[in-house]
Amino acid sequence: MTSIIINQANIHDLETIQLIGRQTFTETFAASNAVEEMEKYLTESFSTEKVKTELTNPESLFFIAWEEDNPVGYLKVNSGNAQTELQDKTSLEIERIYVKSSHHGKKIGQLLYDQALETAKALQKAYIWLGVWEENLKAIQFYKKNGFVEFDKHIFRLGDDEQTDIMMKKVLE
């Protein structure tokens, strides 16, 4: 495998974030969800205005995993008021870690997670938290392997469909 480089994204990466975000979300969840709900979610979540706002928010950071000139995954983390819930100043939220299905099993998700961990430590956060769909057993196992524990549940809206996310956190040393 070619080596993977992880770079922090900026406003110039807007289209890349949109493309890889739509692709990886579709690959991960399309088979388990209605077409209409997927389309609504993708249109809203990856609109130019929404991604631009996220990319320019100083409390949100994006990182793209590159294999040469090919984006193969990405990470989005939030601190402070950018967090989707909790909004605890001592925490960092992992909002998204997605990897192209063609690159599953190649440790790219682990590299992106390691970037989130480094970011949390650099920002002197006490813990990392996230929400993961209760039916995404592969992701749940990944987070458990990395020391996360369940602490709550919340509702995630995919279009008009309400789904349950398991909230997990990892206390940092």
UniProtKB/TrEMBL annotation:
List UniProt keywords, sorted A-Z.
Acyltransferase, Transferase
Q: Where is the signal peptide?
A: none
Boundaries of each N-acetyltransferase domain copy? Answer: 4-173
MF terms from GO for this chain are: acyltransferase activity, transferring groups other than amino-acyl groups
Q: What InterPro entries does this protein's entry cite?
A: Acyl_CoA_acyltransferase (IPR016181), Bact_Acetyltransf (IPR050832), GNAT_dom (IPR000182)
What is the name attached to this protein's record?
GNAT family N-acetyltransferase
Protein source organism: Chryseobacterium daecheongense
Q: What is the taxonomic lineage of the source species?
A: Bacteria, Pseudomonadati, Bacteroidota, Flavobacteriia, Flavobacteriales
